[in-house]
Amino acid sequence: MNIMSEAAVEETLANRVAEEQAPVKMLCRNVSVHYGADQALYDVDLDVGEHQVTALIGPSGCGKSTFLRCLNRMNDTIDICKVSGDIRLDGEDIYSPSIDVVELRANVGMVFQKPNPFPKSIYENVAYGPRIHGLASSKAEFDEIVEKSLTRAGLFEEVKDRLQSPGTGLSGGQQQRLCIARAIAVGPQVILMDEPCSALDPIATARVEELIDELRQKYTIVIVTHSMQQAARVSQRTAMFHLGKLVEEGATDKMFTNPDDQRTQDYITGRFG
Amino acid sequence: MSDVTTTPGLVSGTTQPKRDIGIKKRYAAERRFKLYGLLAISIGILFLLLLMWSVISKGYTAFQQTAINLPITFSEDIIDPKKERATNPQVLMMANYPRLARDGLLAELGIDPTDKKNRKLVRAAGKMVSAGSRVQLRELVVADPSLIGKTIPVWVLASGDVDSAFKGQVDLSVEEKRRKISDQQVAWMNQLAEDGTLVKRFNTGLFTFGASSRPETAGVGVAIIGSLYMMLIVLVLALPIGVAASIYLEEFAPKNRWTDMIEVNINNLAAVPSIVFGLLGLAVFINFAGLPRSASLVGGLVLTLMTLPTIIIATRAALKAVPPSIRAAALGVGASRTQMVFHHVLPLAAPGILTGTIIGLAQALGETAPLLLIGMVAFVVGYPSSPMDPATALPVQIFMWANEAERGFVERTSGAIIILLGFLAVMNITAILLRRRFERRW
Fold it and tell me: Residues of B with CB below 8 A from A114's CB?
């Protein structure tokens, strides 16, 4: 078993508070996921620090995306998927019956691997979330939210003259930033990103990475990535998954220079995975 | 680079023996397959052309009808000999209008109807004018009683036999006794045609008349209204029920044995012979629910049952075709499942749903067998004013005309088929245009 002991968790938390002064935003204990008879995640304990970027790395099929999708209950949409364990957002159990999944997703936004703007106008893509949550009522308020979100996503200057043209007509990198704008328009506290740059070229990737670093000021970010360089560049903490288990978790600097686990060492140096 | 070419060992001087990897055979197989494909398509097109040619060549004449321009004298002696129309309005309804038309024709031909010697000629001439002139002239007089006593030119329909003969559909070389039009009548016909009083005109009656035993006054008017009512009922019932059922099954229902069974049964339902639906309609809607026979309401309900599986299958396919990433995106910003479906999935699936619906409607429009069982194969002369009134449907009208013996009905059968095919073509083209118009790419 590779679960971290309670003592280790406490030690990690103590380190974190000491090193980075980051309170825990999301706390996960003993998270296991089953797809029917197959177990995809084994007792994962992981904490996400506020205003930090936490990178989840590991070879394909190791369960990092599954874990990410537990954090805003996107796994609920899969009938055979069963999640057990304890996941808390600001101390509140997100799987408790008193929590509404819609409200949770308004607080924990998500950006997907492939840019998936709605086949609607750029404006409508961003305004959709605030509209269904009733965050604005007048046209002026919506305009403000749209402009603010697009600006924060670093897209406003590029699209301000064609807000009414379809979002699907943008380039891949622009589409992904539109999706980020769409996620932050709802005013979430946490943004989950599932390999947000895997479908982008290096220039667009650099642009999105810059953006992630800026967004850290306001939001807590969890990002799944296959690129070691990306994890090293954007994240403060890194968690390494392998075969459904959390192998190791720690400050990114330490993980990439002096990992405790041999598998982490092998993976980040490209010896497997 | 350069030393590669100059190094003798690397120059492929010793050509490797050519391997036989069956290239020729493979290409031959491909050519053969293409040929088979072309052959299959050609046969299909050939049969389609044959069908179109046979229907159109037989049916196009149905869109023309021979009419005679006659000076009709609305003689008071014939219409109202007892001069009691002021007190008894029935008189105008009962009057002998065909005689007015006959006398008009006799005047045109210069035959004196009062001369006893001409009796045979008078009878022969009377048979040249359609008995439908009764209704036509009656309507003129009832609408404007001041016509009585006046003489005005009226286009009167020629009888079915004259119509057929004038269109060249009657073999005049046959012995006179064995055909329905005499030499005398043919002579008159040719004489009137030369004068320009007997001509072929566009057959509006084909679209407006109801059922009739005389081909010249038979039309698909009632059938079109009946079919229209049924299509409306199918659209109003099958579209919402079908779409709601598909959305539930596709987006909300848990995937378990029950929903699997429902899915299998819906697919099976689509393959149930339509006549079975007719029996079901007869048992449930007419015998049990007590709805009237021959009514387009019952026809519409039966066709709704038949169309539902088609619409459900098409809608589910359209919903399945919406990429999961759109669903994830909607859920990701915190939309509820219902919002996800109605804001994003359904609009994207709409073109597919519309296409499926229109194709389902087209199928229903052409359906005959179940309608026979619920009594829509009826002789309905008057327009149905509501879906509860007796009516027929286009394909049923075709079926009934195909059973008629008279020459005039042969062309009308094909003519009605052309009308039905026209409606179907319009519906299918609409489906294609809608799909093109609303199709989105992502």
Answer: 325
